Amino acid sequence: MTSQKGSKTAPGRSTTMADVAKLAGVGKMTVSRLLSGSANVSKETAERVQRAIRMLNYQPNELARSLRSPHSKTIALILPYLYDPFFATCAHAVSTVATQHGYSVLITTSDEKTDIEQQQVAHMLRRRIDGMIIIPAPNEEDYLRGKDFESVHIVTLDRPATHSRFDSVLVNNRAGARAGVAHLIEHGHKTIAFLGLAKDLFTMQARYNGYREAMTGAGLTPELYIECRSNEETVTLVHSLLTEKRPPTALFAGNNLTMRYLLHALNMLRIDVPGQIALAGFDDFDIADVLQPALTVVRQPVYQVGEMAANLLFQRISRGEYPAKGHRVVLPTELVIRRSCGCHRESRVTFGAKSVADTTHE
């Protein structure tokens, strides 16, 4: 075995890969390949190299390594924004999986604007990232059809891209919303309003369709989609709704941001829930179970959505796959019954078993 003596480097000089190779008694290329994970050497040789690295406290130059390697060990994550707990939790899940694979994550936001998203995607490609996870802005599809993306690993989450070659991870939005609204109908409500964010969002469309199905299935007339863009606007909208000749007796919020707008409006207007109006919504959040009354919600497996998207991406990266047709993974939702709907007990019901589909829009 090669002697481990003389492991000191000259004062003021940084330890190099050549120093590690000399101390371990191997070639410099062997050290480089071991660090990149591509070397096929004996366990004894690998241990000698690792011991030399520790003794010399060698720190690889990651920038130089990335320039030499076809892999940057970095992925990109493009979100609409980070103030929504749903997107923040997805980002945490993606980062956790990336760390397990020895990757870093570059996170940026699009603010739901296609032009900003396209600029950020182009910027990430210049950074030589190994793959991308995107929550697409509305109407983003055209630019992803370009040749620049033919050899880029891309997975979308929460909303699909229309390109069938990209993998997507979604939840069963329609079934979840249908179950939540059906529960309100079981309480005897016949006039139920649906409130959500911009109606051109995939998730809002799917959840509104679930609302319509529940209403028409019960022989009731669905109301028009109501867009809520801010606290102030929602106060005005709710006041207008509740002063109509035939006001709704129940409200269904399309996501957690809409629910927060609604809670603010109902508090400002001093409306008792569920005494004057029943309330349910899509998305659970941290304090939903401690509010008075606790909120009845359709819970989606947020962490698992981000985790699944990251796992799919790393599968494609490791296999070098650019499929002509990707997978669409649909995860189940769960109706969590609390008090805001009028119930005096709490329970949970799961809707939409986990599945993989290529064309079904949920």
Account of the 3D structure:
Helix content is 39%, strand content 17%. It is an alpha/beta fold. It has three domains: 17-68, lambda repressor-like DNA-binding domains (434 Repressor (Amino-terminal Domain)), CATH 1.10.260; 74-171 and 303-330, Response regulator (Rossmann fold), CATH 3.40.50; 173-300 and 334-357, 3-Layer(aba) Sandwich (Rossmann fold), CATH 3.40.50.2300. The strands form two sheets. A seven-stranded mixed sheet has the order 2-1-3-4-5-11-14, sandwiched between helices. The protein is elongated. Residues 1-6 and 353-361 have low confidence and may be disordered. Keywords: DNA-binding, Transcription, Transcription regulation. InterPro entries: Cro/C1-type_HTH, HTH_LacI, LacI/GalR-like_sensor, Lambda_DNA-bd_dom_sf, Peripla_BP_I. This is LacI family transcriptional regulator.
Strand order, sheet with most strands? 2-1-3-4-5-11-14
Number of individual domains: 3
**Helix and strand pattern:** HHHHEHEHEEEHEHEHEHEEHEEEE
Q: Radius of gyration, rounded?
A: 26 Å
Strand content: 15-25%
Please count the helical segments: 11
Poorly predicted segments: 1-6, 353-361
- CATH C-level class of the largest domain: Alpha Beta
CATH topology of the largest domain: Rossmann fold
In CATH, the architecture of the largest domain is 3-Layer(aba) Sandwich
Query: Could you estimate the helical fraction of the residues in percent?
Result: 25-40%
User: In angstroms, what separates the terminal alpha carbons?
Assistant: 62 Å
CATH superfamily of the largest domain: Response regulator
Domain HTH cro/C1-type: 16-63
Domain HTH lacI-type: 15-69
Organism: Occallatibacter riparius
GO molecular function: DNA-binding transcription factor activity; transcription cis-regulatory region binding
